[in-house]
Amino acid sequence: MMAVRTENIVKYLGKALVLKGISVEIKPGEFFFVLGPSGCGKTTFLRVLAGFLFPDEGRVFFGERDVTFVPPHKRNAAMVFQHYALFPHMSVWDNVAYGLKVRKLPRSEIERRVREALRLVRLEGFERRLPMQLSGGQQQRVALARAIAVHPNLLLLDEPLSNLDAKLRAEMRSELKSLQRQLGVTTVYVTHDQKEALAMADRIAVMKDGQIVQIGTPTELYRKPNSRFVAEFLGDANVWEGRIKNVHSDLVTVELPFGELKCHPPSFPVSEGGRVLVMIRPEAVAVEVNCSENIEVTNAFTARLEQAIYLGEATEIVARVGETIVKALHFRPLDGGLQNEIRLRFAPDDLTLLPHEVA
Amino acid sequence: MKSDLGSLPTTSPFSLTRSLRRIRHEYSPKTLALWAGLWLVFLAFLFYPIAFMLKGAVIYEGQFTLDFFKLLLRDPQLADALKGSFGLALTSTALTLALAVPIAYAMVRYRLPFKSVLNVLLLVPMISPPFVSAIAVRKLLARFGPINQLLISLGLVDPTNPPSWLDYPFWGIVVLQVLHFLPIAYLNCVAALSRIDRSLEEAAQSLGASGFRLFRTVTLPLMTPGLFAAGSLVFILAFTDLGTPLVFNYTRVVAVQIFHRVEQALEDPTGYAMVLLVMALSVAVFWASKRWAERWQVQTIPRASGETGERILPLPFTVLITASILLVTFFAILPNIAVLLNALADRWFMTILPDRWTLRYFHQLLVYPLAATSIRNSLLYSLASALLDILLGLAIAYIVVRRKAPLPHWLDGAAMLPLAIPGIVVAFGYVGAFANTPLDPRQNPVLLLIIAYAIRRLPYMVRACYAGLQQVSESLEEASLNLGASPFWTFVKVTLPQIVPHLIAGGIMAFAFAMLEVSDSLILAFDQRYFPITKAIYALSNRLEGGVQMASAMGVLGMLVLAISMAISTRLMGRRMGEVFRM
Fold it and tell me: ipTM, 2 decimals?
């Protein structure tokens, strides 16, 4: 298992500055995700790790080895390409054996490893097929088998599931995760799909415009994003603009159009009168249908139910507190029709303060 | 974990340190060596001869002078030739386009019967250089030749005083050039038409335009890049065509004037000046059309598959259009048929068709020394030049398409330069630049002929390789590198197997065109022992006893080689064949 470290990677593609100084430290055996919208530079970063691109500034380390300018074929960092890049003129077997033949392994060893790899991706019996005789999911598995057969120090995955249909994608998610655990290989996975990242990652780096915005575990990022961008990119979020009313060591009161919210102090400095954003996930909003009115509870507000969409496992609620729209997810059936008064409660633990951004 | 996100780089992408960093790390030393080698080839065999002529033309006895250019422009004979070449090229280009545009339009936009057959027939005139047909046609047009005999028997001309067609060599040359260049213009027009986004025409139609108005206001303007491309290509070819005027003994063109100065290349610097003038002109035309094409470049949106966009016309129109195309095609193929008839004619005098047939001249090709040697020579030269082309084309395409060395666009530009620089220029430059060196064509032209052929056809070869490489997804190569294969191994195991058809197709075309190359062959081969086919044809055509017939027999042979080669190449390249002949 190998650690990977990059120091301030800068890369221009033509005149465009695509990577603006990327520094990450990936732990040995970690399943590391790079998540971001298209065009944020995540694939460029992956190609720098693979050695297809050399950075214009900065360094890349595999363990203690400086690999910044090591050509791709000398890195032992196997990649699974977005469109698989299976050699069309070679059978499944030859595709998987390719990297092993290049390494001039003895025949018996090649045979053993190809079988092992095909077994791991559950493609035994397809050895003689040509890539074009396989379905998308099968091709994807061949690409994966080809990459793991060489026992890479680093496994790179470039949106490997983006060409599969939704059902297969969900299936492959858990499969990939358990395969990565089994192999224990340090893995970098690039995607724009936040669900994939949350489901599989040990840690996620969220990228935007060639920079990393935040790095953390899925729960950290989801529950404690450091910016509106991260909050909204990782899932549905209510984000409201407010003004700090007062600051105590363990509690911050924020004034919003519909009332005051008590929150935990954020990691960035705040001062009374300063503008902030308040974020809460829809599923964290507590919805009370039959509210007993006279009980005084913190952060609870009466709201008008505007829309309720029944999704089966939950009900998506759009409500209005004063003029402010609140999205909520309610996990019990909602009896009673629209126009009902409901009560919404925002627990301080679930509220996150975000720095106010000037557009 | 680092919380700071690194400072923003402020320097520009093109700083010196970054460029050095790129050159040092991104390019492999082997590829750089290959790159340098390619530039050496271009320097030695493309730029040096031109530079040599330039020096010869402007420096006399150590002094800079423009006297030779002035001399050139004052010489009435040369001024006349310049005018003649211009007139010829403009006339040929205009007529060629006037034929090619409607035919291309009909072929692309209408549903016509036997379209695939028509498509092949339209390309047939490519298989023989116009000068070979000229030899046969000259005989056809003789005062008492078959054409006049036909007209006499139809009662159209006076049998005692038939018109003397050969008194109008200008129009003879024009006709032959137009018929020969038609396929190239046609291919370019078809390409231009199919690049047009059909929804633009549909938009015009929905706004009420139709028929000729639609064509004039939308289709034609959108076609202009392709039209300019085709036009400039034809113009340059016509302007510098040496063989056809030579056969018609028409000296009022620059190419022939240059040809007659080859012998005194070293003594008379006006030859250089003239060649440079021609080169400057054709490069300017080429450049202008390129610029024009870029200005008009329209992004096409690919159509949903299955929709051909062919319109069905009422039956009478369909018949009329098909018949017209067939008629043009018939005339375009006629010179080739004339070559065949000449080769097979035992006696052909005062009759419409030969009255006795023979295979004697084909047999003579095997035994008559000049013919047999030249065929053997041409096979050797062409094979060598095709192999050279494959190597050069592959290396250039690899470097350019995959950006494996600095300044790939410059390399591409150098490789495409032979499209703009006429064959006579390069050949003439070789004669001067390599005189009294081991490569001196007066002593032994073999190497220079091979190189000249290779460089002439290099643009086509490079394009065939481009087409091939662009089909191979770069990520396949990356996957191979990523799995630990070296760049060379990757090229051999992954890239090469997938572009073999293109290489073969390009190589065959290079071979076939080398077999029938005219200007280099006529200019560079001095000694009979080294004559290639075309020079032998030219030499034979001036002999009295059976010379024309033997020349024609050799022409038939060449046409066969070219036809077969084109068929194979088209099979291998599929629909991408058209791309090779475009600008």
Answer: 0.75
